[in-house]
Design brief:
Blueprint lengths: L1 E8 L16 H13 L5 E3 L8 E10 L11 H5 L5 E9 L11 E10 L12 E3 L5 H8 L4 E4 L14 E12 L2 E8 L6 H13 L7 H8 L14 E7 L16 H15 L1
Parallel strand pairs: 3-10, 5-6
Antiparallel strand pairs: 1-3, 1-4, 2-3, 5-9, 5-10, 7-8, 8-9
């Protein structure tokens, strides 16, 4: 039987999704918990190999097992053996042709930035921080140059092992809610550090260090040295992975990290006191 799981995690304490020699990958924790329920090792395949410190609202994985368990065991049973920073949100039997990585039609990452003069402990390791005011209008204009099918060599890391730097960005939006800025990017697939490098370039433009046409120049340079530094992993979330509707997978349990609601409520209370 092939089972698909939707997993949410706070990646701050982990060395990324992929299994590590020190067993500090999210995959290591998930496979240990699955083995406890299945009674045998269960190898997993994920939709996106998130980096160290990166979070997920909708990481999708699959694994094969001969263990006959009620579907609830793959949620509540597995969660019993997971650390508090990881939780299975849903489980779904899928056909043998389902593949969490190669079957994904579209992935969306969200990057959350606290744009405030002073950092907040409430968002430590959960959002990036920019203390200079960001011009989200300029950032959105800059983003238009990156939409479409392009060679993203200027936005990939030197360690990227992808066979081609060409990716199709379908959507790139910048939205502000009070002191929080969200950069949301959807594509068929991503290169190593691609989102964080795009965020770095947009922040340079947002604080006025570069004009809003700069992303076009960086893109056409096809040279990583032409861009901005890689931005912090803290605010990056794998937010949504989409598949053929025929698989009938559940939708993510949360549209955004729940700490945002608490932070927004704090802003509202501060406004009321003011």
């Amino acid at each position: 039987m092939r089972i698909a799981l939707g997993i949410e995690y706070d990646g701050a304490a982990f060395s990324g999704w992929q299994t590590q020699a020190d067993r500090r990958g999210v995959q290591d924790a998930v496979e240990r918990a699955l083995a406890q329920v299945a009674g045998t090792p269960a190898a997993t395949i994920c939709a996106g190999r998130t980096d160290s410190g990166v979070h997920a609202l909708d990481q999708v994985i699959h694994f094969d097992t001969d263990a006959a368990r009620p579907i609830t065991a793959w949620v509540r049973g597995v969660n019993r053996f997971l650390p508090a920073s990881i939780a299975v949100q849903w489980a779904c039997p899928v056909s043998p042709d389902f593949h969490a990585r190669y079957g994904a039609r579209r992935r969306r990452y969200d990057y959350w930035i606290l744009n405030a003069p002073v950092r907040s402990p409430l968002v430590h390791a959960r959002a990036g921080w920019v203390f200079r005011p960001l011009n989200e209008g300029a950032m959105q204009r800059a983003a238009t140059h990156l939409i479409g099918r392009h060679d993203f060599t200027s936005f990939r890391s030197a360690e990227c092992q992808a066979a081609t730097p060409v990716r199709a960005v379908e959507e790139l939006k910048i939205e502000r809610s009070g002191s929080l800025v969200r950069i949301s990017i959807a594509a068929n697939a991503f290169l190593h550090h691609m989102v964080r490098n795009i965020v770095g370039a947009l922040v340079y433009i947002g604080v006025g260090r570069q004009p809003d046409t700069w992303t076009r120049d960086v893109l056409s340079a096809r040279d990583r040295a032409a861009g901005a530094p890689t931005f912090s992993a803290a605010g990056l979330y794998l937010a949504r992975v989409e598949y053929d509707p025929a698989f009938c997978l559940p939708t993510p349990s949360a549209a955004h990290p729940l700490w945002i609601d608490a932070y927004t409520n704090q802003d509202l209370r501060a406004d009321a006191r003011g």
